[in-house]
Design a protein that fits this description.
Layout (H helix, E strand, L loop, with lengths): L2 E5 L4 H13 L2 E8 L6 H13 L2 E6 L2 H5 L27 H15 L4 E3 L15 H15 L4 E3 L7 H10 L3 H7 L16 H15 L5
Parallel strand pairs: 1-2, 1-4, 2-3, 4-5
Helix pairs in contact: 1-6, 6-8
Length: 217
């Protein structure tokens, strides 16, 4: 009996990962982090999706990170733009995935899970340093040592672009579900979203690329 904990936001990537986990593991649970995010409707979307799919789900409040950082993902008063000093989008939340995956490791340990599934991706990662493969593998080593337990961090999307992620959802038989029921938009609009924010542009561009070239995938 294998078991996985999915870090689940209710967005395109994590929902695709949830379906992937349900195919590859005997038992799947999902955790969603609330941190006063800009599109906090994602928590309700995550609840709805996991309820529909019959997946055990827990929301964990880690909003302390909002007290420690200033960024456009948690501050609606900030316009989304590139930080001139770092060159990163100002939606980057320093330490977010360090915290998320560490907490997920604790949950996995307590729930006797074999793996943590996360939708981080180095191909379409917007420059976020905590979405890179070397970060994930390094943190995985640290968790293994710190917990004295082998828990694997799985990243099914790590080397996929957005079109390839849509292709994965389609191969899992869930393209329409992911397209219609997930929330990726920074302005909190489900499905195709507002069409204007960076997250929507990336998502919709990838979808059109996939739909226009299905035979290539």
């Amino acid at each position: 009996m294998t078991k996985a904990i999915v870090v689940f936001s209710g967005g395109q990537d994590s929902t695709t990962c949830l379906f992937w986990a349900m195919k590859h593991y005997d038992e799947v649970e999902a955790i969603t982090f609330y941190y006063q995010q800009r599109h906090d409707d994602e928590v309700e979307v995550a609840k709805q999706i996991t309820k529909e799919l019959g997946v055990d789900h827990k929301v964990i409040d880690v909003s302390l990170i909002n007290d420690l950082t200033v960024n456009a993902l948690t501050r609606n008063t900030l316009d989304i733009e590139t930080d001139k000093e770092t060159g990163l989008p100002n939606t980057f939340v320093p330490g977010r995935n360090i915290l998320f995956l560490t907490v997920a490791g604790i949950v996995a340990y307590q729930r006797k899970a074999d793996a943590i599934i996360t939708g981080v991706c180095e191909t379409d990662f917007s420059g976020y340093p905590d979405c890179r493969n070397d970060f994930v593998t390094t943190l995985n080593d640290a968790l293994t040592i710190g917990l004295d337990k082998q828990i694997k961090i799985e990243t099914p999307l790590m080397w996929l672009n957005k079109a390839e992620t849509w292709a994965m959802a389609d191969k899992l038989g869930q393209l329409d579900y992911v397209r219609d029921n997930t929330l990726t938009c920074y302005n909190g609009i489900k499905g195709a979203g507002c069409g204007k924010c960076p997250a929507c542009k990336l998502r919709n561009r990838g979808l059109q690329e996939y739909l226009n070239n299905k035979e290539a995938y």
